[in-house]
Amino acid sequence: MVKSPPVKFWTRYALPMCVLFSVHMQSQAASSVSLGKLSCEGIDKPIGVEAPSPRLSWVSDSKVRGWNQSAYQVLVASTSALLAQNKGDLWDSGQVKSPLNQIAYAGKPLGSRTRCYWKVRVWDNKAQTSAYSAASVWEMGLLQKSDWHGQWIGYTPPAAPQPVIPTLQGASWIWYPEGDPLRNAPEETRYFRRVVNLPADRKISGASLRVAADNSATIFVNGKQVGTSHDSWKTRDVFDVGQQLVAGNNVVAVQIANEGTAAGLATQLDVKFDGGQPLSVLTDGTWKASKTAPAGWQNANYDDAAWVTAKEVAKVGEGPWGKVSSTVQVPAPPAPHFRRTFEVNGKVSRATVYLCGLGYNELSINGRKVGDHMLDPGWTRYDRRSLYVAHDVTSYLKTGANALGVLLGTGHYDDHVLSVWDFENATWRTPPKMLMELRLEYEDGRSQTITSDGSWKASTGPLIFDSISAGETYDARLEKTGWDTPTYNDASWAAPQVVEPVKGFLAAQIAPPVRVTQTITPVKVTQPTPGVFIFDLGQNIAGVPQLRISGPAGAKVVMTCAEKLHDDGTLDAANIDEFVHRRDPSQVFQTDTYILKGTGREVWQPRFTYHGFQYVQVTGFPGTPTIDNLRGLVAHSDFATIGNFECSNPMLNKIQQMSLWSYRNNFHSIPTDCPHREKNGWTGDAHLAAELGLFNFDGAANYEKWLDDIADEQGPNGDFAGIIPTSGWGYNIGPAWDSAYPLIVWYLYEYRGDKAMIEKHYPRLARYVDYATTRSKDGIIEYGLGDWLPAKTQTPAAVTSTAYYYVDSMLIAKMAQMLGKTDDAKKYSDQAARIKTAFNAKFFNPQTGQYANGSLTALSCAVYQGLVEPQYKAKVIDNLVAEVKKQGYHMDVGILGAKYLLTVLADNGHADVAYQILQQKTFPSYGNWIERGATTLWEEWNGNQSRNHVMFGDVSAWFYKYLAGINYAAPGFQKIVIKPHVLGDLTYARGTYDSASGRIVSHWKKSATGLQLDVTIPANTTAMIYVPATDQSKVTEGGKAIAKSTGLQWVKQEDGYAVFAANAGSYRFVTRN
Description:
Layout: H1 14-17, E1 33-40, E2 47-49, E3 55-62, E4 69-77, H2 80-84, E5 91-92, E6 96-97, E7 102-104, E8 115-124, E9 136-140, E10 153-154, E11 172-175, E12 189-198, E13 204-214, E14 216-221, E15 224-230, E16 237-240, E17 248-257, E18 264-273, E19 279-282, E20 288-290, E21 308-309, E22 311-315, E23 336-344, E24 348-358, E25 360-365, E26 368-369, E27 385-392, E28 400-409, E29 433-442, E30 447-451, E31 457-460, E32 463-467, E33 471-475, E34 497-498, E35 505-508, E36 514-520, E37 524-529, E38 532-549, E39 556-562, E40 564-565, E41 571-572, E42 591-595, E43 602-604, E44 611-619, E45 630-637, E46 643-647, H3 650-665, H4 683-688, H5 690-696, H6 700-713, H7 735-738, H8 740-752, H9 756-774, H10 797-818, H11 822-843, E47 844-845, E48 850-851, H12 856-864, H13 873-886, H14 895-907, H15 911-918, H16 926-931, H17 955-964, E49 966-968, E50 975-978, E51 988-995, E52 998-1006, E53 1010-1028, E54 1035-1037, E55 1040-1041, E56 1048-1054, E57 1057-1072
Parallel strand pairs: 2-9, 27-35, 33-42, 50-53
Antiparallel strand pairs: 1-3, 3-7, 4-5, 4-6, 4-8, 8-9, 10-29, 10-34, 11-22, 12-17, 12-20, 13-16, 13-18, 14-15, 14-17, 18-19, 20-21, 23-28, 23-31, 24-27, 24-29, 25-26, 25-28, 29-30, 32-33, 36-45, 37-38, 38-43, 38-44, 38-45, 39-42, 39-44, 40-41, 46-51, 47-48, 49-50, 51-52, 52-53, 53-57, 54-55, ...
């Protein structure tokens, strides 16, 4: 849907489109159309298709105005030779009279590994036939469990003994002296500090600070934030603070917020010296406390004489917290390597490998990495669905001896870093393991299968640590050169363990994989402190650093990635590492370590992790680095770019680029909130960015994969978590987030014209709406996250929760109608009507025209979601515009309001107000982010948290819809609306969009004499074109009067536009002033 959930099916365009006329088509030959972009399941030449009736599509391209398809014929053959003879032994559709260019295969049943060669031809409405398209191909996956013949194998070497980490024994729980902190402290923030004097004659060799906090603490040492701690009263966090301490006075300062019931803080500072006994400082009655935070309170020289003495409320191990866990985080073993040799005896016609290697895997054959994928396979709820990846490896094989090599990483499957999200306790978690099937087919008809089993060899190697959040440690001295070649001596390798299969089932990954898509050269490198180097990429990215270095064997180079710097130029990761629980001082975050082998130039980058960063801090570098020693490798799901927008306003172009970067940075097999702090598939973020994604990228297959993830997560009652996949964390997030499920299903239908996802997911979608009904009372839903992170004004969550409950009910009603489920359609339509009545009864004041507290979000939400009764709409819009002006044309909205506000203004005659909002450069605004150096979208208007979020990104879709003016009036852009808004100081805007039917173009530019609008409407579609003009008599097309222009008909004059019905073709409109 373009605007909001399309509860009106674009009825505002229904009347004009009905007058679209039939024109005399120019004489044309069969060559007037070419067919291309053949795809199966939305993918070019996929391997591993599992749909029994795969979806096939093509695009017609014709320069002839008014070209339309009247029929098609699809041929599918089992060999390329048969297809070349125009023989479809698997399916010959015959001539099917239909304008559709997206159809379902309807031929013979397809078995596992079947290779299907296909092509298409079409007829136009003059009964002329096109040439056949070029051939394409798809290959079926392993459709039955019995198709897998191998065993799951893993390899876990003996674990090394773990160090004993000191506990908080002897420390006290402290709090501000008020009430009864053991039972019921105020839900407020308190401040604590303790000055520690360190002798000048003892050299500090290291220091750690252990923290147990109830509930959320921010920790400072000598004024510098060293980390955050959330609910660490269960298992304490540990921070390395050796770099922050100095001889003389130091201060440990803690800000801690209580979220209800008991409150407390316990810490232990341990300082080690080059010689002699260490120093330990515990929380006790010597600490100071305050209700307020005066300027400089975190600094050692602050005078805290006015602060009160902290109250010792209990000894650690007593009180409501019980014993603080002393469990240490057990590091993961080194990454396992597996190898297997085999013989190829003859000429291979085709070889396909099917590999499920969890968490991540890298496959090589005869010393060559197979493919260019990264982070395979995609993240799923592994105990319900795990993905395998199929590769054509024919070109990798040779006659005689060959070798397979597989390297496994932990990924999300074996997430061993403790965090808020509890993935270390996920029900699916085991050490990495793999299942492989390699199928060889010889030209003489023989076949051969190599599978994973206990006969393989296993070992470890240079990748001694890997974590999706913490990073990697690689000791190049441990490399096993040639380990994946047939001549390697593996006599010292062990047998792998045959392990239990994954729970759930296996499914093919055919959506675009993660790849490295760009290499960025740093813009500068600085040295803020001796031996500490900061590389600045000049762009906030998701990916990994690549180190390019020469040095002595054993040199240890540490790269830490973040997106902010402190004022002194050192790295600041405090805004992104707060949700990792540090159980020992060695726990790192977004840190990659490389130990040199010392053999000359060495180039290395991590392979089983990714980070969000602009800055890379490098320590341990042998010498002084230059920008040539490091690169940033951009990595994300590699969907094709299908849209482009630009205009004459540099700031709007910058906002567009920030949106694109944030979107790509936040898609790694699932749509995420941020690429560093969480990497979670937050449902709210996903649907708020979906239209941004669908306008700019061909990511439909990636969304389809994630919709399966949601379906896998849904419980019997219809509910699912707010992060997908989840370990069990994140339920009860509410409809504003849960609506990602029905909304993204609907967006895929509206943007791509394919209702397959509606057919597939309807039963679960209906179950979800029924669940939401159980959480409602009298049509209102009170719970859930609301307008997340507004600049100032918080809108009641019940407003947005209930609005999305209404939208979901309407969408399910429409889906039911499409599927012929008339009883369901009536049920959910009637339910939506009741919700609308309840919403207005509770939140709307008809005398004032205000909703709820009159916030920008409350007002725009009601309009956007179709909840305002017609007789009140003008008053509500007036109130909205007045509130915008009251806010100084600033965006006092959170992420939901940001989705609604600009669209509602533009749709209701106030596009100029929306444009003025986008011109602001002071807080809160997109422009303010740019003024502060942003290259991606931020999480908060104030910039204090993540600076690589996508949830404010719907503004990009707004650029397409309102500045370029590209919109749809029927699913899949079969009927198109071109309606550009010429606003403010803009002198041009240009948008292109590759729809399912072909490229749409809208490009306007102003001049002293008027305006020129260039429009392209793809073959087999029609459009309504709104040309900015006060009178249609002032408009020409192609240098001629409209009446002489083929393919156009004037419809009406409306609100400063001359409106024309248009057939497919390219047009140039010129309007005189």
